[in-house]
Amino acid sequence: MTARSKRVGAALVVTGLVASGLAAVPAGAHQRDHGYAAEIRRASYGVPHITARSFADLGFGVGYAQAEDNLCVIAETAVTVNGERSRWFGASGPTDPNVRSDLFYRKAVEDRAVERLLAGRRDGVHAPTDDVRDLVRGFAAGYNSYLRRVGAAKLSDPACRGRGWVRPLTELDVWRTTWASMVRAGSAAVLDGIVAAAPPTATGPAAAQDAPGAAAVLAAADGAPAGVGSNAYGLGEAATATRGGMVLANPHFPWDGAERFYRMHLKVPGRYDVEGAALIGDPIVEIGHNRTLAWSHTVSTARRFVWHRLALVPGDPTSYYVDGRPRKMTTRTVTVQVRGPKGDLVPVRRTFHDTHYGPVVVVPGTFDWTATTAYAITDVNATNNRAFDGWLQMGRASTVRELKRVLDHYQFLPWVNVIAADARGEALYADHSVIPRVTDALAATCIPAAFRPLYTSSGQAVLDGSRSACALGADRDAAVPGIFGPADLPVRFRTDYVTNSNDSYWLANPEAPLEGYPRIIGDERTPRSLRTRLGLDQVRQRLAGTDGLPGRGFTAERLWQTVFGNRVYGGELVRDDLVALCTGRPTATASDGTTVDVRDACAALKRWDLHADLDSRGAHVFIEFAVESGLRFADAFSAADPVRTPRRLDTTDPRVLTALADAVRNLAGIPLDARLGDIQTEPRGDRRIPIHGGRAEAGIFNMIVSTRSPGVGYPKVVHGSSFVMAVELGPNGPSGRQILTYSQSTDPNSPWYGDQTALYSRKGWDTIKYTEAQINADPNLRTYRVGEGRHH
Question: Could you say which residues form the signal peptide (predicted)?
Answer without folding.
Answer: 1-23
